[in-house]
Each structure stands twice: as C-alpha cells, then as structure tokens.
Amino acid sequence: MIGAHLQQCASGAFPSEVAGLSDENCFVTATVSLLLDPHRHDAALARALDFIESCESPSMPGAFAFYPAHGAALRRVDGLPPDADDTSLAWLALLHGKRRTENLARAAFEQVIGPASHRLVAGSMPGWVRPYAVRTWLADCMPDNPVDLAVNANVAALGHRLRMSAHPACEGAVASILAAARGAYPPGAFARRLTPYYADISELWFCVRRAIDCGAERLSAALPWLQPVISGDAYRNEKPLYCNDHGMPIWRSPVLQDARRRLDANYSRFQPSRERSTQ
Fold first, then answer.
1. Taking burial as the number of CB atoms within 10 A of a residue's CB, which of 34, 82, 91, 150 is the most buried?
2. Which residues, listed in sequence order, are joined to residue 243 by a DSSP beta bridge?
3. Secondary structure of the chain in the HEC alphabet?
C-alpha cells in the first residue's frame, strides 16, 4: 500500500503542477518511483511503470519523453521530443522495478544516449563542458540543446548502474561535473548555466547523490562544491523543480517533495538532533 500523502493519478503518474495547473509527466513519476520500495509499494510502482512505459517514443525505441505519446494524461507543454534526462530516469525506474532487463537498457544507452554526446566542445559552451558530455535533447532538430549538468548526472547514474562507466557518454558526463566543481564556478552564482532545465540548483545535488548511489563514486568530489546550496529548504513542498532553458514555466511537485522527506535517507541530516529539539 502507498499512503495518501503519495497520491497517484489514475494514469499511474505521480502528480506535479506547472504554472498552477495539474500536470502528469515521466520525470516526476520516475523520480518518485526510484524512492519506492518494490516490495512495500509494489502496486503503486507497477502503475507508475505503466505510465513511464507510455512515455517511450514510438519513433525512437528506448528513448523517453516528458509526456506520453498518446493517452489522456494531463500535459501542459506541447512539442517536447525525447530527451536524455527522461530517458535516463525512465530506465533507472524500469530497472528498479524489474520491468525491463539490463541488456535492453544497455542497448538503449548505446543507441539513444550515446549519440547525444559530442566529441568536440564548441567554443560557445561553458568552460566546464568536457568532450562527450551529453546534450539534453535526443533530437538533432532542436535549435537550443545545451549541456545541463543535472542531466549529465542522471546519465552517469544510468551508465554506472549498467556497469558502463567507461562509455564515452558516461565519462564525459562525470568529467564535466567534476570540471565545474573544481573550477571557479560557485553553483549559486552559475545556477542558470550549470542546470538550465532545473529551476533550483539544489536539484543538481539530488542528481549527483543518485549517481553516487548507483556507483559513480568519483562524483563524491563534487559534494563539497554543492554543499552551500543544499539544506532542509531543498525538501520544501513549493520548491521550484524544473523549467525550460529560458527559466519558464516552472514545475513543482509537493508529492515528490513529500516522498523525499519520508523516503530519502539523506533527509535525516537536515533534521535537528533529538538533543537540540528537546532543549
């Protein structure tokens, strides 16, 4: 069973909101799914995975988009093609719930995420971008396709989960995050360039932590760099989560934030100790 605090839509999605309107998307659903215990929350996880699978691209098997290609799920932004972020999180969730095999996930990593990494770094890119960093959109036709470090952290999480850490896309993702951490790029000051599709830089901390949990131990070196932007406020219900690369519109998800407070082992570090709370 899953508590009422983790309400789930009829579609199987976990709800979010954008510009005050209800929304159902792959991203929030996969992120909540990864916090669920497959044994304690098996029914809810199964419904969520059904929704996630509906977001797979009909024209690019193995790639996932923010919204389902068909169906009645609420969608507030049109024309979003498959992207490396939803694809990475969708596969992590499908593996977490044992819905699909590692062999299928490896094939998808090679065939849809790998081509989104680029050996050459354009001179217009930020100084932390390293060769083979992964661009966000999997469609070459997108006019704006920046390198987002949170996206790359999710790519690194999937790559390490699949024991593909030596893949150029995984290497480029990790190298770019570490280059930003070692450079003169305070995350608070450079937030919009470091993570153009994330509305709060603390989300990069969540993505890096997830990658470390998947085996990307090298990224532990980035945690001190991110420490100034992470606190209990990162778990508040109304925190802005995601956005377009120009900063609008903004998605929020109280359900995700509540799941993080209840199910994320890292949350305990932000709580006052019993000694302090009883004084």
1. 91
2. 250
3. CCCHHHCCCCCCCCEEEECCEEEECHHHHHHHHCCCCCCCCHHHHHHHHHHHHHCECCCCCCCECCCCCCCCCCCCCCCCCCEHHHHHHHHHHHHHCCCCCHHHHHHHHHHHHHHHECCCCCCCCCCCCCCCCECCECCCCCCCCCCCHHHHHHHHHHHHHCCCCCCHHHHHHHHHHHHHHHCCCCCCCCHHHHCCCECCCHHHHHHHHHHHHCCCHHHHHHHHHHHHHCCHHHHCCCCCCEECCCCCCEEECHHHHHHHHHHCHHHHHHCCCHHHHCC
Per-residue pLDDT tens for 95-147? Answer: 999 999 999 999 999 999 999 998 888 778 899 999 999 999 997 656 678 89
Contact 237, 257 (CB under 8 A): yes
The answer to whether the beta carbons of residues 57 and 64 sit under 8 Å apart is yes
For the whole prediction, is pTM greater than 0.90? yes
Whole-angstrom distance, CA of residue 18 vs CA of residue 20:
5
Percentage of residues in the chain having pLDDT higher than 70: 90
Are 241 and 262 contacting, i.e. CB atoms less than 8 angstroms apart? no
**Rounded distance between C-alpha atoms, residue 212 and residue 261, angstroms:** 19
Mean pLDDT of the chain: 90
